[in-house]
Amino acid sequence: MPRISVVIPCYNVAPLVEQSIRSALNQSHPPAEIILVDDGSKDDTPAVIQRFIDAHDQRLPTRIVLIRQKNAGVSRARNVGIVKAGGDFIAFLDGDDLFMPSKLEKQLALLEAHPEACGVFCGLFQFMDDLDDMERAPIQNVAPDPDVRHILLHQTVVVSTVMVRRTMLHELHFDETTGHGEDTVFAAALRLRGPWRMVNEPLVAKRTRPGQASALTRHAIWNTRTRVEFCRQHAAEIGPQTARDIEDDLWRRIVSALERRYWRRELRELPAMRDQLAKLCPEHLSQSFLARTRLYPRWVYHLKDRIVGRPPTADR
């Protein structure tokens, strides 16, 4: 029977990690091992995990292992887990996310039916505290067999939804030099080795928490830069013209996102973001009115309020 390893990076998730472990353990096709890599947590995460391991019946099909490292980032934690994993297939789960009970079984069946595939992913839904508190709304822009362009532009493949063949990870790892977008370029790099397949069901619950990196405004720029650098490094494999087109689309999208923040009056970090884009993609920013206008022209907001019939806010 094929062996599945589940790699779970953890950082300061003491109140949540036991629920994540149980979701990986209580699968209709149980994994052979669950490898938890604590990335130098400052809370009680390692103690919570160790108590769970001590109480776990080692006669069950799944072995649970805790590895501790100094804080080095989630990519380093995932890479350590990959090295330690002994399974034929490796699935990833963040320490605050959850697997639905049939996730591993359905992904394994699809991978075995498609030996040409680099890996499989599945649908997901977001939640905060209870599984149904965000109505299990599915993510958008999902393609069952996304190409590199689709992955880089839409960030379709989320790591907690992924299962890959161990043989596909030869000389391939998560980029430890950046803390933004490393999961997207990992999925893109795998796509260069073979097609993705998708179980079109929401089999992963992705927890949304205040302060997550993906919620920070500056994260969008750093994430875009990581994907652009991937295009440049792999231009020969992607195709030089396709790589340039993807890069142009990425920069245009982030400039458009900056403009949307302007019109929504989210101004606190806007000057710093504009300065960053002036260095990273000056030619794309130069085509935006934000490159040549004040960031806080009250008369523009007042005019827009009149046009859309919105009452002016107190600070405008």
Describe it for me?
By secondary structure, this protein is an alpha/beta fold. Helices cover 41% and strands 16% of the residues. It has helices at residues 17-25, 45-55, 74-84, 103-113, 148-154, 182-191, 217-233, 235-238, 240-263, 270-280, 282-285, 298-308; strands at residues 4-10, 33-39, 63-69, 89-92, 98-99, 119-127, 163-165, 196-207. An eight-stranded mixed sheet has the order 3-2-1-4-7-6-8-5, sandwiched between helices. Strand 2 (33-39), helix 2 (45-55) and strand 3 (63-69) form a beta-alpha-beta unit. Helix 7 packs parallel to helix 10 (270-280) and helix 9 runs antiparallel to helix 10. The relative contact order is 0.11.
Based on CA atoms alone, the radius of gyration comes out at 22 Å
Structural class designation = alpha/beta
Mass-distribution shape: globular
Distance between the termini: 66 Å
The helix content is: 40-55%
**Biggest β-sheet, characterized?**
8 strands, mixed
User: What is the succession of H and E elements?
Assistant: EHEHEHEEHEHEHEHHHHHH
- The average pLDDT is 88
DSSP summary, beta strand count: 8
Spatial order of the strands in the main sheet?
3-2-1-4-7-6-8-5
Q: Which spans have pLDDT < 50 for at least 5 consecutive residues?
A: none
SS field, number of helical segments? 12
Share of β-strand residues? 15-25%
